[in-house]
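Subject line: Sequence and fold of a protein, written as structure tokens
Area: Proteins and the way their chains fold up in space.
Start of record: The labelled sequence and token lines come straight after this line.
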Amino acid sequence: MAQLAIIKINKSVEEMQYLGLYVQQIFARFEALVKQSEEQIKNK
């Protein structure tokens, strides 16, 4: 029983790490878009 709980915890930790990476990628893309639009505003 305890082993099952440990496996479940490990699985959710892996999922959290995966989610964290996904969120980081989204933020990186968002930052790139913001910088792009800032450059476009400067150039106008």
Notes: The chain has one domain: 1-44. The CA atoms of residues 13 and 19 lie 10 Å apart. Residues 1-44 form one domain.
